[in-house]
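SUBJECT: protein chain
CONTENTS: sequence, structure tokens:
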Amino acid sequence: MSDNNFENFGMIDTLKDFLAGGAIQLFCVDTVDIETRLNVYGDKIWRVARQGSYYRYIIEEVLQFIREKNSSGKLQSRRTSLAYSLSAASRTF
């Protein structure tokens, strides 16, 4: 299940001037929640392993990709799922 709510609810359009001016970049990554957190009847060991491989993917591939595309050294992440949201976290790499 793809969560395109950030776009569907007009956030891309709202940010278009910042995006066009290069002030911000957006990198959107889908989740595996339907396979892990939301799969309450699935095998618990498989669900944990799947979530672990997703976290490794984010850390080892997605963050590396972002670093290659953006040399500012700053990253702000936001969970945009309507199911729940986490507060924004800012980190410097």
About this structure: Residues 5-92 form one domain. Residues 29 and 62 are 8 Å apart (CA to CA). The first strand starts at residue 74 and ends at 77.
